[in-house]
Amino acid sequence: SVLLGHFVGPVQGDYNEVCKIYTVGIAGSEIKVSLRPHSTCTYCCNLISPHRRIALHLHRKNHETIKIDMKRKRGRLKAYGINSNITTMLYIHGFTEYAIGVSARGVCDAYLSRDEDYNVLSLDWSSLAVFPWYSAAANNTRIVGRVLAKFLKFYDASGELPLENVHVVGFSLGSHVAGFASRILNGRMGRITALDPAFPEFPLDDKSQIITKEDAGYVDVIHTDSGGYGIPISIGHSDFYPNGGRFMQPGCTASQLAEEGNILSIVLCSHFHAWRFYAESVMNPTAFPATRCGISENGRLNSCPFTVHGYMGFGANKSVVGNFYLTTNNKFPYGKSAESQMFQNG
């Protein structure tokens, strides 16, 4: 599969040329591409000093973005204007993406639109998540997690970034980066939101290899392509299954996406809906009321009263745990009121 990067062998040629990373535009989207994988395999491009391949981006309300390397020096984050007394939202992108890509911008801009202040950061590990080398990128989640954990541990100790105030939002592979980092930190992060955490290459029978609810004070999960590109089991304190959590989500049928002429959009649309739903929830925390009442195979609510037991996304909290279900619209705004879901059920 090209999407998973299972090629017969690496491209041969000049090392500097085959290890270059290119940004390629596909139907309005940009992805990171390399002729060879960047990881720890025998034919991979070197991973010497991986911390130099990773960076943070600080997003500000004036739309300014500041790149911060992973060096550890007391006072650095304070000098950048990061406030230790407020919540820090750290977004971690997925395969082929980067820290100012479409999903990162969607989530970060949503936070910046809120009235209250947040430290809004995104992690750039794009050179370790290049297309088409998915298996290499999956392996790299552990490496990136270690680098991030060292960074957070240092600045937690310095008082500049207290772990209990950190909320990591990870999409796809980024969810596992968050899990591996927090595990090294003994689960001391305040919250991890896992947006359709990646399934391929992550064995379900070994909980040490996937994000779980033990990895932070509160772990909430949004499943939108369960059993496809997303993990098919409940792994958080709260797991949300919009439209049953499966491929394909409303608005993701081939006919609806055909006009884009983008095969990646068709294949990954349901997976990408996880961050789209979350970004909307940041702007409207009650946009996605959810119930414990299950959803049938056709995506419709079962014949039971729709009682609002919690809200998916930004408004989720540890006071309500378990599995939750809801339905959505097929385009933005995706959120449906409890009344409209009751009407559908009736």
Decide which structural class fits the backbone.
alpha/beta
Strand content: 15-25%
Oligomer: single chain
Which residue ranges are poorly predicted, with pLDDT under 50 across at least 5 consecutive positions? Answer: 1-13
* Number of separate helices: 8
Radius of gyration: 20 Å
* Major beta-sheet overview: 9 strands, mixed
CA-based shape:
globular
Topology overview:
Layout: H1 15-18, E1 21-26, E2 29-34, E3 55-59, E4 65-69, H2 76-79, E5 88-92, H3 102-112, E6 119-124, H4 134-157, E7 166-171, H5 173-184, E8 191-195, E9 218-222, E10 238-242, H6 254-257, H7 263-283, E11 289-290, E12 310-311, E13 322-326, H8 338-345
Parallel strand pairs: 5-6, 5-7, 7-8, 8-9, 9-10, 10-13
Antiparallel strand pairs: 1-2, 3-4, 3-6, 11-12
Helix pairs in contact: 3-7, 4-5
Structural write-up:
The protein has 346 residues and is α/β, with parallel strands linked by helices. The chain has a single domain, classed as 3-Layer(aba) Sandwich (Rossmann fold), CATH 3.40.50. Helices cover 25% and strands 18% of the residues. The strands form three sheets. It has a nine-stranded mixed sheet, with helices on both faces. A two-stranded antiparallel sheet has the order 1-2. Helix 3 (102-112) runs parallel beside helix 7 and helix 4 runs parallel beside helix 5. It is globular. The model is unreliable at 1-13 (pLDDT under 50). Residues 62-334 form the Lipase domain. Belongs to the AB hydrolase superfamily. Lipase family. InterPro entries: AB_hydrolase_fold, Lipase, Lipase_N, TAG_lipase.
